[in-house]
Amino acid sequence: MIKELKAIAADINILYVEDEDEVRNVAYQLLKKFFKNVVVGVDGEDGLDKYQNHGMTFDIVLTDISMPKMNGLDMAELIKAINPNQHLMIASAHSDSMNLLKAIEIGVEYFIIKPIDNTQLFEALIRVCKRVLAERKLDELQFNTLKNSVDKAIEIKFEKVLHSIPIPSVLLDSEDHALYFNEEFLNIFDMFEDNETIFKINEKSLKFTDILDEESEYLVNAILDWKDEVIDLQDNESCNFVLNTANKQEFTIKIKKFEEDSESTTHYLLCLLAK
Question: Considering only CA atoms, which of 93, 99, 90 is closest in space to residue 114?
Answer without folding.
Answer: 93
